[in-house]
Amino acid sequence: MEIRRADKIAELLEQALFAGQYQDGERLDEIKLAEQFEVSRTPIREALQVLVSSGLAEQIPRRGVFVRQPGPVELMEMFETMAELEASCGRLAATRISESGLAQLVEANVKCQQAIENSDHDTYYLENEKFHQIIYRGAANSYLEKQALQLQNKLRAYRKMQLRFRGRMDQSMAEHLEIVAALQGEDAERAAHVLRSHVAVQGEKFHRLLASLKN
Amino acid sequence: MEIRRADKIAELLEQALFAGQYQDGERLDEIKLAEQFEVSRTPIREALQVLVSSGLAEQIPRRGVFVRQPGPVELMEMFETMAELEASCGRLAATRISESGLAQLVEANVKCQQAIENSDHDTYYLENEKFHQIIYRGAANSYLEKQALQLQNKLRAYRKMQLRFRGRMDQSMAEHLEIVAALQGEDAERAAHVLRSHVAVQGEKFHRLLASLKN
DNA sequence: GTCAAATTTATTGTATACAAGAATGGAAGC
DNA sequence: GCTTCCATTCTTGTATACAATAAATTTGAC
User: Fold this and answer.
1) Which among A161, A148, A153, A151 is positioned nearest to A209, based on CA atoms?
2) What digits encode the pLDDT tens for the residues A41-55?
3) CATH homologous superfamily for B72-209?
């Protein structure tokens, strides 16, 4: 359990937002939330500030804080930015990742493959995420790593939809193998390129994402 | 003037931090700051949260918030990340920037050149910043643009040092011309490459040295 | 004299009270 | 019936009071 109630509440609110429990533009009523969490307005306000600073909500002075769900355009922009960040991580990791890092990547891929064979979506998703995180780490730039992790976190909910599509997991696995090959060969440009298109949402994927948003 | 006192205070504190008025690790005393700004602890606390969430300070629960000036390693990491972000912006801008955007770039360069001839460092700095911001905008991805602007803002104080070196401004100008040429030619890779090395401060070698020291 | 435990002090975190601006609703005017 | 202005109500922002925990200091034992 957290030490500060405000932190715990921020976390819970974040989860609730990701779970879609609030409409876009909805006002987050301090008093109602205070009653709901059985605390005073003070920790609620601090929690709301956290949401605002992470972009999940917007604050209008003397008006309140409002839920801010990304629309399709912003979502695309976030995916594109994620693709660029991953490409950067890949480029840097190509010459910096350790042997142990490479081994971890291979291991994560094995677990991904197993998950596919068992049709275990959750495990696949988890190991896939881990795979990418190893690359962030491999870039040996903790600032960049943090940025990548943050955006990965923001996109988690939407990424999950993506993977549900038939055949996506198999293709994704093939790309993972190519990424590992590029990193092993210390081919920075190739690593960057493959990662970028692996993450990017283009063509068919884009339409599928839009379609899934409407539901 | 801001509507919320907390916002105004956050801004002032940020400036004070950038101006180096606080030591690294120094505790930001809520009560002292409250007296200093002649407000209660409440707006001070909200302002401190802003600093924490932007990474300028660190909060340790029930201990307080402490100034967190980036050390040489983190600074390098931030510059490297900036270089990657700029490269991404350049890549995207190559095929997306408008004619008017290109014209603005040329115009900014002219003003930069004039500033060099007048030895007007401040103007040079301002127009140089503007030049880069036009490229962020040219990427036509407002999320990425915001990320780039944020990091540019964080690095402002340190970037200023960089430019003081003799001959740096001339070299920088030459690189600007090359960047514009790449964008005009819609050469995404070249734009990315030139921008990356334009922004990157120290070389790969130095970073590798630092990184290897950590392991 | 030194170390440890307990008490005091100081500081953060939370609750509540108050102030000020924004939204709402109704009455007056057209 | 519609609009406008005013009063009321509601909500946020700030101040202050209280609670809880960490730091500091004192006191006692060895």
Assistant:
1) A161
2) 999 999 999 999 999
3) GntR ligand-binding domain-like (1.20.120.530)
B74-108 pLDDT, tens digit per residue, is 888 999 999 999 999 999 999 999 999 999 999 99
pLDDT on residue B168 = 74
| Contact state of B144 with A91 under an 8 Å Cβ cutoff | no
Which positions in chain A have a beta carbon within 8 angstroms of at least one beta carbon in chain B? 2-4, 7, 45-46, 49-50, 53-54, 61-62, 74, 77-78, 80-81, 84-85, 87-88, 91-92, 95-96, 98, 140-144, 147
Longest CA–CA span in chain B (Å) reads 58
**% of chain B beyond a pLDDT of 70:** 89
Contact A77 B7 (CB under 8 A): no
Rounded to the nearest angstrom, the minimum Cα separation between A188 and chain B is 13
User: A36-45 burial, b if ≥16 CB within 10 A, otherwise e?
Assistant: ebebeeebbb
In angstroms, the first-to-last Cα distance of chain B is: 49
State how far the Cα of B158 lies from the Cα of A132, in Å rounded to an integer. 31
Task: Using alpha carbons, list the distances in angstroms from residue B207 to A96, A147, A160, B163.
Answer: 10, 19, 35, 21
A72-214: CATH, from 1.20.120.530, 3.90.830.10, 3.10.20.30, 1.10.10.10 = 1.20.120.530
CB atoms within 10 A of CB B121: 14
Of B49, B77, B142, the CB nearest to A143: B77
Name the DSSP letter for residue B59.
E
**Contact criterion met (CB < 8 Å) for A140 and B207:** yes
A5-67 CATH fold: Arc Repressor Mutant, subunit A (1.10.10)
CA distance B75 to chain A (A): 9
Interatomic CA distance for residues A73 and A85, integer angstroms: 18
